[in-house]
Specification:
Length: 243
């Protein structure tokens, strides 16, 4: 299922099943059936149709939303091997840890709010009638060392835009990981019909601002004294790129 795909279920029980699984990230087949009070035969049939249509997938008796957003890409720079790939549900804790580590100096406020949101949410990836949320990660071995996150509200007047955050742990900066993640995120946005991607940062986050400028992003506006960090007022720099 692509994020640009309109959700059409053809049956109210199929919609209920998808929404339950999508909102929980991953659920046990029998538990979902019992919670939703769908008779066993009907539940199995509806799940089979949802799997056939690419909305759900099942692994080891666990149901999850099926997102087909590309394969893993392997890189090696300065003897460091890393992989950039679509995130999975079991990456949630690693992503939260990476975002909090990058944001701990108070210079990446939007990313910090993303970490808070997914840390209190059951599902990492989302695609429903209200919002879409996609992550790609960079991993070294089994550890998440960087991420790119895209968020898009499902509103007609904003359907062409998506908000992006991207970050890499300090120990792995300078290897091009951030550029690969950003490129992967923008490719995803373009392939799903988004025309503009944006993000905001405090003016004190000079590294992020210069990084985005080097990637072709432009400053659209500056909101003076929008943040208050360590008792000091700080401007918000609003940046965007057209796809």
């Amino acid at each position: 299922m692509k994020f640009s795909e309109t959700l059409e279920f053809g049956h109210e029980d199929r919609k209920r099943i998808y929404e339950y699984v999508e909102s929980h990230g991953e659920v046990d087949f029998e538990e979902a059936r019992d919670v939703l009070h769908v008779d066993p035969g009907g539940f199995r049939h509806h799940v089979a149709i949802l799997k056939r249509d690419g909305y759900l997938e099942e692994r080891d008796g666990m149901l999850r939303a099926a997102f087909e957003e590309g394969t893993a890409e392997e890189y090696e720079v300065d003897d460091v091997e890393f992989v950039v790939r679509p995130a999975r549900q079991d990456d949630l804790s690693g992503i939260v840890g990476a975002i909090r580590r990058v944001a701990e100096q108070g210079s990446y406020i939007v990313a910090e709010s993303v970490a808070d949101e997914i840390d209190h949410d059951d599902a990492l990836l989302r695609h429903n009638e209200i919002e879409s949320r996609m992550f790609f990660v960079a991993t070294v071995g089994d550890d998440v060392v960087g991420w790119v996150h895209l968020y898009a509200p499902e509103l007609d007047k904003l359907a062409h835009t998506a908000e992006l955050t991207v970050g890499v742990l300090d120990d792995y900066q300078g290897l091009g990981i951030g550029s690969h993640l950003l490129e992967r995120g923008l490719e995803w946005a373009a392939s799903n019909g988004y025309e503009k991607v944006y993000q905001s940062a405090p003016s004190t986050n000079e590294y992020a601002i210069e990084f985005l400028k080097a990637q072709g992003w432009e400053t659209e506006a500056v909101r003076e004294d929008h943040y208050k960090i360590d008792g000091e007022y700080v401007d918000e720099v609003m940046m965007a790129v057209e796809l």
